[in-house]
Write a structure and sequence with these properties.
Structural class: alpha/beta
Strand content: 15-25%
Shape: elongated
Distance between the termini: 61 Å
Number of strands: 12
Radius of gyration: 28 Å
Largest sheet: 10 strands, mixed
Number of helices: 10
Helix content: 40-55%
């Protein structure tokens, strides 16, 4: 009998359980069947792997040798399987394609536009979600090549231990106001001046909501109401004067709405691009990063209020909040 991966998994299961009875239960086998299988494995390897006793089983010296190798081989094979799946889902070396995931906003559209212009023959598919975690998980398991998400301040992105992340841009968070709002003519507004307003924002599963609440507390108030809804609904609520809205500084010019900077930049948004370091997409990451950064510059240039803010010499990188105040902003 030749040793197979399933035999190594059986040996590992017995060692971890400490008894044949518990191991049989974990493996979904009858104990006599597991005992017979173990005897065949031991004959194949030339000696006993476990010593049986009243309290269960204990590995022999030969058993420890085999277990040491199994602890290396089994994870390596699992990683090989994951990498093969990612490679196959990425096209297996055929015509180049881009599978992009992102949260809603102008940056993803700008990236698609630039990639389509640079490589018109390449395949292109996008997946959008309010959930940064969902997008990151799809990049981990090979369903996406690149994940384009945002985090507030210095908070860590999801799947930080499994994906490679690069910051491609950093923006202040602005406020959207109806054009007839009393403060609409101002270039910069203190957060405290909006203490009596209802707010509109898009949903998400990061810490932005907590960061916004903490910023309001530091400004001396608690938001009276927050509407969490899609972008179009947020814009409508602002246009009709029902609420003011939080937005990225790159938010495009929109009829009935103006965007203005918040004094002191109490909230910062980082744009991050992530990919799996073991995937075929890793080789193309520098090129995609360059396209994202160019798309961000173009989006910033289309926002008159952000253009004026930058021309005044301000930079979101220079306004990082003090982490001693709580959640990173």
């Amino acid at each position: 009998m030749e040793l197979e991966l399933r035999h190594l998994r059986t040996i590992r299961a017995i060692a971890e359980a400490g008894s044949l009875t518990k191991a049989a239960t974990a493996l979904g086998l009858a104990q006599p069947a597991l005992s017979a299988q173990l005897r065949r494995i031991e004959r194949s390897l030339g000696g006993a792997l476990f010593e049986r006793g009243r309290c269960g089983v204990r590995t022999t010296a030969l058993g420890e040798l085999v277990l040491d190798r199994a602890r290396v081989v089994l994870p390596a094979v699992h990683e090989l399987q994951e990498e093969a799946v990612r490679f196959a889902r990425a096209g297996g070396g055929g015509q180049r394609s881009f599978r992009l995931g992102g949260t809603h906003g102008p940056l993803l559209g700008g990236l698609v536009d630039r990639l389509a212009g640079a490589e018109p023959e390449a395949g292109m598919a996008t997946h959008t979600s309010w959930s940064e975690r969902e997008i990151a998980a799809q990049a981990v398991d090979g369903r996406l090549d690149y994940a384009l998400i945002g985090t507030c301040g210095e908070s860590a992105p999801p799947e930080a231990g499994r994906l490679a992340w690069t910051e491609v841009a950093r923006d202040p968070v602005f406020v959207m106001l109806p054009t007839d709002h009393p403060l609409a003519a101002r270039e910069e507004i203190a957060l405290a001046e909006l203490s009596g307003e209802a707010w509109a924002d898009v949903p998400g599963d990061g810490c932005f909501g907590d960061c916004f609440a903490a910023a309001c507390v530091r400004a001396g108030f608690t938001p009276a109401r927050v509407y969490e809804t899609d972008t179009a609904s947020c814009v409508h609520l602002v246009q009709v004067g029902r609420a003011v809205g939080l937005c990225r500084a790159t938010f495009p010019a929109t009829p009935g709405v103006v965007t203005r900077a918040l004094a002191g930049t109490p909230l910062v948004w980082r744009h991050l691009l992530g990919w799996h370091p073991g995937s075929p997409a890793a080789a193309g990451a520098p090129e995609v990063i360059a396209h994202v950064r160019a798309a961000h510059r173009e989006a910033a240039g289309r926002s008159p209020s952000y253009t004026r803010w930058l021309a005044a010499g301000r930079s979101p990188a220079l306004h990082a909040p003090d982490p001693a105040y709580g959640p990173p902003l």
